[in-house]
Amino acid sequence: MSDKIKMQGIMEQGYGISPKLVMRDKNLSIEAKAIYAYMSSFAGNGESAFPKIETACKDLQISKKRFLNHRKYLIDNGYLTIEKNRKKGKFDNNVYIINQTVVSKRRHGESSTRQNDTTNNNKVLNNNSSINSNSSSAHIFYENNFGMLTPFIIENIQHWTSDLSDELVVKSMEMALKAGKKFNYAEGILKDWHKNNVRTLDDVEAKKTEFAERNKNTNRHGGVKTTKDNPYGYDPNVDSF
After folding, report:
1. Counting Cβ atoms within 10 Å, is residue 198 exposed (0-12), middle (13-18) or buried (19+)?
2. Can you give the pTM of this predicted structure?
3. Parallel, antiparallel, or unpaired: how do β-strands 80-87 and 48-49 relate?
4. Phi, then psi, of 49 in degrees rounded to 5
5. Nearest-angstrom CA–CA distance, 116 and 218
6. Under CATH, to which class is 9-127 assigned?
7. N or C, which end of the chain has less CB nearby within 10 Å?
8. Which residues contact 168 (CB under 8 A, 6 or more apart)?
């Protein structure tokens, strides 16, 4: 009979490693980092059973929607891969792979590879829940430039990326930043684009030219003026762009 070794205290139920690379990655939200640490804690023994999403959400005290939204950051940035196992042609369970080599997919298919030196091999976690992962650079752009994502903001951004496109949502936020404004300014722009059937970046440029011509007349009559901080002269409470 073999001897045994046993951990006592906070690590007796299992433990994992959270690499500094993950914890310092500015592309990840604080929720994404918490989810990574949570998953890692189950991967310490190599391949092990992973709780259902409902259990993970209860342990982390977040909603399922919030869990899925922030788990996407891990997928998009290459830290996590999810594979579906099938038996006899039917879905059986999910396999969560915590990657040693990180390949980011967040820039429209452009990949960059990073090495996670704190892990020796890919760790695999099994789970019986379904997958739903749609990448969104708009969420990452918001968090990097405006602040923490809340469930309300996440839902707003998803609404606009669905109605218009990811690139137009990012463009509207870039315009807001250049004007020194907040996200509600970007939303004003998005509302106008939707109303005026602006659907591509080329449409945006055409609209910008049209607005510049109209703004010349507006300035003569004391309207909203273009400035260095507000290059488009856009006021979401008054005008449309």
Report:
1. buried
2. 0.44
3. unpaired
4. -70, 140
5. 56
6. mainly alpha
7. N
8. 160, 190, 193, 198, 199, 200, 201, 204
Cα–Cα distance for residue pair 241/150, rounded to 1 Å: 27
**Inter-residue contact 240 to 192 (CB < 8 Å):** yes
Give the neighbor-by-neighbor strand order of the sheet with 48-49. Answer: 48-49, 123-127, 90-98, 80-87
Q: What is the pLDDT of residue 110?
A: 42
Give per-10-residue mean pLDDT for the chain (241 aa). Answer: 64 76 88 91 66 90 91 88 82 80 53 41 43 59 87 86 90 94 93 90 86 68 50 46 38
Give the SS3 label for residue 164. Answer: coil
Distance CA 127, CA 233 (A): 52
Query: Domains of the chain: which residue ranges?
Result: 9-127, 137-220
Give the pLDDT of residue 122: 46
Torsion sign (Cα): 115, 59, 147, 160: positive
CA distance 159 to 153: 10
